[in-house]
Design a protein that fits this description.
Distance between the termini: 35 Å
Strand content: under 5%
Order of helices and strands: HH
Number of strands: 0
Structural class: mainly alpha
Helix content: over 70%
Number of helices: 2
Largest sheet: none
Oligomer: single chain
Shape: elongated
Length: 116
């Protein structure tokens, strides 16, 4: 009987650790999005300012092509990031139910940041 109770406590500790790691991963995905949101316009503004003085059209074309490929890379990265972010949110919701977190708002489901 005690072994069963000890297994339940150990399982709950694993869920808590998993929930903590999942929340850290969600914060990391969000942080990456905001960094990209700040980085891309800044880099674009700097490129426009520098290239407006360059008379050689081939240089402008080359830098523009590079910008296109970098933008496409960022879009594909963001698409993958969104899939992983959604999976992490889904996992956090499941872990909140498994941890039996209290309900703080009105509703039928278990509580927790991602379920409410």
């Amino acid at each position: 009987m005690e072994n069963h109770k000890g297994d339940r406590v150990e399982s709950e500790d694993k869920f808590k650790l998993d929930y903590e790691q999942t929340c850290q991963q969600i914060r990391a995905f969000t942080d990456i999005r905001f960094k990209l949101l700040a980085f891309v316009p800044t880099l674009t503004g700097a490129a426009v300012a520098l290239l407006s003085r360059v008379p050689d059209q081939w240089t402008v074309l080359a830098v523009g092509s590079l910008g296109l490929f970098v933008t496409l890379g960022i879009v594909f990265y963001e698409m993958r990031n969104t899939v992983l972010y959604d999976a992490a949110i889904h996992r956090a919701k499941w872990l909140e139910v498994s941890l039996d977190l209290p309900i703080l708002t009105y509703g039928e489901q278990k509580g927790g940041l991602f379920n409410e």
